Amino acid sequence: MAKKIIQKPRGTQDILPADQKYWNFVVDNFRNVLEGCGFGRIITPTFEDTALFERGIGTSTDIVEKEMYTFKDKSDNSITLRPEGTASVVRAYLEDGISSWLQPVKLYYINALFRYERPQAGRFREHHQIGAEIIGDPSPLRDVEMIALISRCLKRLHLDNVSLQLNSIGCQVCRPQYMRSLKAYYKEHLNSVCEDCTRRYDKNPLRLLDCKEKACRLVADNAPQLINTLCPDCHEHFRTILEFLDDLGVSYELNTKLVRGLDYYTRTVFEFWYVDDNFGSQNAICGGGRYDMLVEILGGKPTAGIGFGVGIERLMLVLKNEESVLVPELNAPKIYLAQLGGAAKKQAFMLAQSLLDNDIPIASRFDKKSVGEQLKEASDLKVPYAIIIGQKETIDGTAIVKDMYTGFQETLPQEMLVSEVIKRLS
Asked: 3-state DSSP call for residue 409?
């Protein structure tokens, strides 16, 4: 009886070699922009104390209530696989003495995240995110800096049909008054909303505005708007952001229903949406906002912060969907080594090592394929040159160098091959 093939868990994926060019294109562009803006990379643990996310994200959020991968380790500690990146960075900011560095601190990460949610196109239970944080400066110019940085990255990816959604959800001064008016409005409509929204009414009423159910969205359309009840400080903060974005030519849409799904957000929240009818309803490719209370919630002094996260898989899906975006190929082989016979195989193998020592990517086959079959493979790989070593070349200490585009070939001494290849490829 044949053994059953073990498959990957639902909601995970294998990122195969053919997709690596998309992965590298996304990561390299973001990393170059971030490091050029003074961000340093931080790597935090894949799992953390569960209390970090319960306190940081909020116990009434969907992430903590439904989506975290939480387990007991052998010492009976409650451990959670990292569902988002900001809480871990702030924990490191406090624990590792980063709060004593010159402020503000700019950090970025490239992490795997884990959430038990319904898998969809570009959304996985294990997914990867590029994120960045600026901690230690309450200025609205940091909000503008972060948004402009993301816009710059997306332009470098040649993505044009992207919409910036922007809102302010106030602070601990002005939000309580709004929450009272929001609950008063929804109290008259509880029979018209979904079960999740009925639960959110008591636990997390701001999330009522964010529900994707059609009936709930109709109710939310007439709900009072938080932006109309901002305190003077929040109003001035948001006005400054809009003014600078206008001056920079960064277009945006005010979205008064945008609240994001984590409790630590204050004031500015934003998302970048990919606008395409074929992309589905889950069109957010990047999101973030300000979290001026999070450091204090996790035991530090009151410290402002702002950050964002962008899903790598989501952007890869967008790039595949965008036929107009030419993603650079990876470092394809430049030389194909073809050989015939045992002695030729040894010489070709040693030549391969010399070429690799000089950073020249190669392809070769050391099985029993004929020279003709090997050259067909070289043609399929679109290498510019093939080097052929047969029985005669083995005896003479030579090799045939064939231009795969013109068909021209010549015989050269083997000791000249590396320098000749370097010359031709340059």
From this structure: strand
**Tens-digit pLDDT profile for residues 216-245:** 888 888 888 888 889 999 999 999 999 999
Gap between the Cα atoms of 132 and 370, Å rounded: 53
- The answer to whether position 11 is within a domain reads no
How high does pLDDT run on average in the chain? Answer: 90
Q: Are strands 385-389 and 335-339 parallel, antiparallel or unpaired?
A: parallel
CB contact at 8 A, 285 and 173? no
Q: How far is CA 340 from the centre of its chain?
A: 46
Asked if residues 197 and 208 have their Cβ atoms less than 8 Å apart, the reply is: yes
Percent of the chain with pLDDT over 90: 58
Q: Which two tokens stand for residue 215?
A: 């009936």
Strand partners, 186: none
Nearest alpha carbon to residue 146 among 262, 259, 244: 244
On whether both 258 and 348 belong to a single domain, the answer is: no
User: Both 384 and 292 in a single domain?
Assistant: no
Do the beta carbons of residue 62 and residue 261 sit within 8 Å? yes
In the structure, how many helices (H) and strands (E) does the chain have?
15, 16
